[in-house]
Amino acid sequence: MHCIIIEDQPPAQRILKKYIEDMGSLQLKATFTDAVQAMEFLKTEPIDLIFLDIHLPKISGIDLLKTMPQLPPVILTTAYPDYALESYEFNVVDYLLKPFSFQRFVKAISKVPAKDSGKNQSETAKSPSPNRSEIFIKSGYEHIRVLVDDIIYIKSDADYSEIFLPGKKHLSSEPLRKWLEVLDSYRFTRVHKSYIVNTSMIARVMGNQLTMTNQEIIPIGRAFKDDFAEKFLH
User: Do 166 and 102 fall within a single domain?
Assistant: First the structure.
């Protein structure tokens, strides 16, 4: 994969360059100290992955994500945990909190979607695009249109699932695992064997519980706690 670094701190640049070199499967094409330079480069050069710091001169990493929504996959590298939940609204691959180990770096790389993954057209058509704004829920003999932004969480109900929206819910004849395949995995995350949550709908986290924007409490399962904390609670 061809990658670039957007990072203004030389020590952080050196660590990333070393990790990239050690990976073998990555080829560093350029390093930039600010996002403006990188934006010009990206207009003409095909890149597969961006390592992006959040606190940058001129334009922040978050502002770059807002300005260029069609960026290649992005791994955020930052010393500040405050933007973790916000960053996942932009479909970032992972959020690396400095200082991070090579093992954590490798884990982030493993989440990058493979190039030319070999899917045929029909398989690709079933996969959601990063900007997918709506889905159709199969409920009995009908399909109900739902805005993805409105989904608060999804709860497993045996071989069915319940999709919770503000002020209402829909019973779907699809199992929970179906929604793991259909919804954007960087925005919708599984926190319990019975729950998938929209990370942008999390109001607060306390202990092993999430309070959603509709004030409902969602448990964080033991098997999912470490992964959730690693992504969002640094």
Answer: no
The mean predicted confidence, pLDDT, of the chain is 84
- Regarding whether 160 and 134 lie in a shared domain, the answer is yes
The CA–CA distances, whole Å, from 181 to 79, 91, 196, 227 equal 32, 15, 12, 18
Partner residues linked to 55 by β-bridges: none
Q: How many angstroms separate the CA atoms of 41 and 45, rounded? A: 6
CB atoms within 10 A of CB 107: 15
The residue out of 42, 76, 109 marking a domain boundary is 109
Express each pLDDT in 65-108 by its tens digit. 888 878 899 999 988 777 666 666 676 888 888 888 998 899 88
Residue 109's alpha-carbon distances to 59, 75, 188, in angstroms, are 25, 8, 19
